[in-house]
Amino acid sequence: MPLSDEGNLWIQARNGDRKAFARLFDLHASALYRFASRLLGPGPDAEDVVQDVLLSMLQHDKFDPSRGSLRTYLFGAVRNQALKRQRVVLEELSPFVPSREATPDQEMARLQTSSALATAIKALPWSQREVLLLVHYEDLSLKEVAEVLELELAAVKSRLHRAREGLRIILQPLLVPKGDRR
User: Could you tell me the CA-to-CA distances from 50 to 45, 78, 79 in Å, in that order?
Assistant: First the structure.
C-alpha cells in the first residue's frame, strides 16, 4: 500500500526535515487545538496537549502510516493526553461573532443559545461528549471516530445517539413548542 502524502511528510519530519514538520503542523495544529480546547477549555492546557502530541509524534515510533491516517492518530493522541490530565472544562463551542444583518436582540439570543449548548455538552458524560465533538465540531466520519477512540463502529453510533438524546433532554426547556412558532 503506497504511503499517503501525510505519511511521507511524517517520515521526513521524523528524519529531521523541519519543513515537513512545519507542513504537518500547519495541516493539523488548529483542528487539534480546537478539539483539545473543547475538552479541556481554551488556554495553556489545550496548547500544552497539542504541543506534547506533535512533539511526541516525532520522538516515538507509534504512528504507522500504513495502518491509518495521521489525522485520526493525532486526534486519538490528543484525546489520550486530555484524559490523562483529568481536567475537563468546556467553554463556549461557537465563538460569538456579531452578524451585520442581525439585530442586537438576535445576537443576544444567539449568544445565549451558544452558551446553553456549551453547558449542555459539558453535562454529557465524557464518552458521549468526545464522540459528539469529533463528529459535529471536527467533522470526522463515524469510521474515523471509531479509529480515534479505538471502538467498534456500532459503539460510536450508540454513543453519538445517546449524546444527541441527552442534549435534546437537557435543552428541551429552551425549545419553542410547535404551537408557539410564528
Answer: 9, 7, 10
Q: If you classify domain 5-85 with CATH, what class do you get?
A: mainly alpha
Instruction: Measure Cα distances from 110 to 94, 106, 113, 116, 120 in Å.
Output: 10, 6, 5, 10, 15
Q: State mean pLDDT over 56-84.
A: 80
Who's near 135: CB < 8 A, 6+ residues apart?
142, 145, 160
- The secondary structure of 28-96 as a DSSP string is HHHHHHHHHHHHH-TTHHHHHHHHHHHHHHHH-----TTTS-HHHHHHHHHHHHHHHHT------SS--
Using the predicted structure, report yes or no on whether residue 113 has a pLDDT greater than 60: yes
One fold for both 5-85 and 104-175?
Answer: no
Query: What average pLDDT is seen over the chain?
Result: 79
pLDDT digits (tens, 9 = 90+) for 49-68: 898 888 887 776 677 777 77
What phi and psi, each to the nearest 5 degrees, are found at residue 39? Answer: -80, -40
Query: Counting beta carbons within 10 angstroms of the beta carbon of residue 172, is it exposed (0 to 12), middle (13 to 18) or buried (19 or more)?
Result: exposed
104-175 domain in CATH 1.10.287.3510? no
